[in-house]
Amino acid sequence: MCTLEKRGNIFLLTLTGDDEHRLNPTLIASIRSALAEVKSQATKGSVLITSGQGKFFSNGFHLRYAQAAGSVQGAKDRLMNMVQIFKPLVADLISLPMPTIAAITGHAAAAGLMLALSHDYITMRSDKGVLYMSELDIGMTLPDYFNAIFRSKIGSPSARRALLLRASKVRAEEAAGMGIIDSVHSNGMETLEAAVRLGEDLSKKKWEGKVYAEIRKSLYPELCGILGLKDEKVLPSRL
């Protein structure tokens, strides 16, 4: 599951427990509920930081949950349902009225990596954890919004090729060199502390959240089109 803590202007969303934080309907609903609470309490200077306990940030969709349906068709239906209900969670993050930071304190794979990439900034530990897209290895194509996230958030064709066409397991230093993450730190605690420092710096700007969200959305027109997010014009209250 997940917990939500507020420290001043910073919201700390933590995927809890020592498991793999696999994204099943229950966890997806829990994260979306936490994001709704964050949005309802947002003020100028608010920042969201998402991290995970243990050695995983998130290991993607819960394939064992899908397989537990008891039939091949049932497993496919459960997997497709997870793909469909994860999409609005991505939309929640892309439209959230504040800066967002993912602190990758462990492995981030498949949909777990998509969760991290849906944030504005990423810090990552170097001693443990990799970024990994497993779809090629398990024989599954990517949902349209996954592809749009990659094209929107990772500018390097060679980086996209490494993750998607080689299924490379990318460690922090390499990910930083590819431009996928923003900073590298020696362990999980330092990774989270770096995210908090960044969050505190961003919080000082006291930006108008709605304006921040609209400018973010304008950067990713393809992704926002697939997510069904529409632009809204915001003008200064005083001219």
Description:
By secondary structure, the chain is α/β, with parallel strands linked by helices. It has one domain: 2-enoyl-CoA Hydratase, Chain A, domain 1, CATH 3.90.226.10. The chain is 48% helix and 16% strand. It has eleven helices and nine strands. The longest helix is centred in the middle third of the chain and has 23 residues.
Helix-strand blueprint:
Blueprint: E1 2-7, E2 10-15, H1 25-41, E3 47-52, E4 56-58, H2 63-67, H3 72-94, E5 100-104, E6 107-109, H4 111-117, E7 121-125, E8 131-132, H5 135-138, H6 144-153, H7 157-164, H8 172-177, E9 183-185, H9 188-203, H10 209-219, H11 221-227
Parallel strand pairs: 2-3, 3-5, 4-6, 5-7, 6-8, 7-9
Antiparallel strand pairs: 1-2
Helix pairs in contact: 1-3, 6-11
